[in-house]
Amino acid sequence: MSSRTGRPPKISLPEIVEAARRVVDTDGVAKLTMRRLAQELGSTPMAVYHHVRDKDELLVLLLDAYAEENMLKPELPDDPRERVVLAARAMHDSLVRVSWVVEVITADDLMSESALWYVENIVDGAMACGLTAEQAVHAYRAIWYYVAGEIIIHRKASRRRAADDRPTYRDRVFAELDGADYPRLAEVGARWGELTAQDTFETGLRALVNGLIT
Amino acid sequence: MSSRTGRPPKISLPEIVEAARRVVDTDGVAKLTMRRLAQELGSTPMAVYHHVRDKDELLVLLLDAYAEENMLKPELPDDPRERVVLAARAMHDSLVRVSWVVEVITADDLMSESALWYVENIVDGAMACGLTAEQAVHAYRAIWYYVAGEIIIHRKASRRRAADDRPTYRDRVFAELDGADYPRLAEVGARWGELTAQDTFETGLRALVNGLIT
DNA sequence: ACCTGAACACCGTTCAAGT
DNA sequence: ACCTGAACACCGTTCAAGT
């Protein structure tokens, strides 16, 4: 009773996803267009549309494929607070490796199924520290905002740094800074660039976790 | 010695920015294209290009115009820790009102000059609590990650909610959740949607500030 | 100096037809 | 059932010419 009629398929969903990965890995997510993908497959854009509803669906499929093998799941310590910190750190580090993902991810507050491991461990650690289920979920969300914000801002900032030769908008603003209006910023002044270049993700994360888990 | 020759201008930079604002206010930032803008001006795309280098420059100009009049600057309390919280809250609330802005903003860790007020007050409050200049800048960045992350994720989530009729990806994931692998998430279960719909920005912010300022 | 029109090199997606 | 080709309705930007 199963498929008996019709033209035999030339491309399959796994092949499509694999081709999409090749494009993203070599040329970046911005270059992933339906046309470029079809070219990579030796096919036409519309052949792809027979397997996926639209480009968004393709991106979700791609996300899952990446998640499957890029998610770091380190051994977590017994101490519940430290478990929260290290789970969040692992979530962050996994996402940074495929940072184009956040542009897709932020569509929802929960990403693919593979990310549940992080959520579970963060919520569990928080509850083991004495938070209620409700508080633990709220704590997870605060952590997710922090992690996502850090990744997005860093990604954009480093893209700028790579592309731009002239001084950044920020540099100009600081150069023209009025010390009377903004004494603290004037005090920090030229060190701003240096200070914001430092990686302070984990210290910030620990502060957040400490604040969330009294 | 100044301009003597040449055709008289038909459109000015202020007019361009004003027209861009009309487009963004009525139809959203996604509809702001050079062609649509030209139409709004009763002109051609290339006339605009004579006044701005490219679309990015237009967006920065637009950002400044919005910032000038949308930035909330409430009276801040004397207590330095509370000053940090309320400055961050005001920064957040100002940005939410023009949330399309974050898509442009995140290009750098500092936005327009108008945002310096927030930065100054956050850094100042942190230093008044005993942090060094260096620590205060790092604290500001952690707060900015949190604020930016919250705005971006909320913006995207609400866009989805408006557009989509079918159940979200998240709902499907939770429905198929394996309680053995993820006991805590199974425990929270159906309440997830309800819990993540709550506005917990300020409690999260206070936790972060408390963690940053011992 | 400032503006116009046509064109280039792209997009995602729909539609009608082919095998 | 699956694929193709042409077309639609867009983009940002460049180029050559007009006033």
Textual characterization of the structure:
2 copies of one chain form a homodimer. With 214 residues, chain A is mainly alpha-helical. In chain A, 67% of the residues lie in helices and 0% in strands. Chain A contains 12 helices and no strands. The relative contact order of chain A is 0.09. The interface between A and B is large, with 63 and 62 residues. The structure holds a DNA duplex (19 and 19 nucleotides).
Distance between the termini of chain A: 62 Å
Stretches of chain A where pLDDT is under 50 for at least 5 consecutive residues are: none
Order of helices and strands of chain A: HHHHHHHHHHHH
Strand proportion of chain A, as a percent range, falls in under 5%
Derived structural class of chain A: mainly alpha
**Structural shape of chain A:** flat
Largest interface (CB within 8 Å) is between: A-B, 63 and 62 residues
Instruction: Determine the number of helices of chain A (DSSP H or I, runs of at least 4 residues).
Output: 12
Helix content of chain A: 55-70%
Q: What integer is the average pLDDT of chain A?
A: 88
Q: Sketch the major β-sheet of chain A.
A: none
State the total count of DSSP E strands of chain A: 0
Oligomeric state of shown chains: homodimer
User: What is the rounded Rg of chain A?
Assistant: 22 Å
Domain HTH tetR-type (chains A, B): 10-70
Keywords (chains A, B): DNA-binding, Transcription, Transcription regulation
GO molecular function (chains A, B): DNA-binding transcription factor activity; transcription cis-regulatory region binding
Organism (chains A, B): Actinomadura barringtoniae
